[in-house]
Amino acid sequence: MKLLVLSDMHGERAAVRKAKELVLKNRYDAIVYLGDFSQKIGDAERNIADAEHFISELEPLTKVYALFGNCDVREVEKLLEGRGVLLHNKVIMMGGTAIVGWGGSHPTPFNTPSEFKEDEIGESVERLLSDAKKKGAKRIILLTHEPPKGTNADLIHVGHVGSEALRKIIEKHQPEIHACGHIHEAKSEDLVGKTKVINVGQAKHGHFLEVIIEDEITARGISL
User: Fold this and answer.
1) Which of 92, 100, 116, 118 is 20 to 30 A (C-alpha) from 167?
2) How distant, in Å, are the alpha carbons of 12, 67, 123, 128, 158 from that of 8?
3) Looking at residues 97-102, what average pLDDT do you find?
C-alpha cells in the first residue's frame, strides 16, 4: 500500500493540483489530508468550498481520507462525513496495519473553530488505539492534525506548543509513525521512543509525505 499524506493547504488550490500530479504519477492507493482547508478562519462558505474542491478533484483518482484542522469550521466535519471520507475518530484497517485519525487541536490562544480539551483527546485516541488492537492491528499509523508536545514537530519561537495528551499516547502505544501538520514552521522528523514523528509541512508550499506499507513501514518527504 502506498499513501500520499498532506496537510494545511489553507485555501491554496494549487496544492490540490500538485497532489493530483503525484497521484497520477505514483499511483497511490489512498490520499490522506490532515486538515486546515480554510484560507481565512471563520469564512465558512470558502472553507466548505475548498474542502469540496479537494474531494471532487481527487476522489475520481484514488481513495480519499481527510481530517479537519483546528481552523476548519465544524460544518467541514459534517461534509467529510457525508462524503464518506472522514478519518477523524476512526480506525481504518489496511491488512494488519491500522490507520488511526484525530482532527482539530487542543485549545489555542486564537479560539479557532475546531478545538478539543486535552482530556477528550487523550480518552478518545486511547480508545481508538485500543480498538485498533482488538481488530488485530500489528502496526499502527497515527494521523492527527496537531503534533505531540516536546518534539521538533511542535517547536516555535516561544517553545513547544503541541498536545500533551498525544505525547502520552505515543509514549504508551509506540505507533510506527505519527504524521501531523498544524505548526507551519515546524516541518521536521523526530522520535518519541521508537515512534517516528513527522510534521509533513504545508501543502500550500508544496510539501507532501509518502508512506509505503510493506513488511516494514517507510516514509519520505516530497517537496514540489
Assistant:
1) 92
2) 9, 11, 25, 24, 21
3) 98
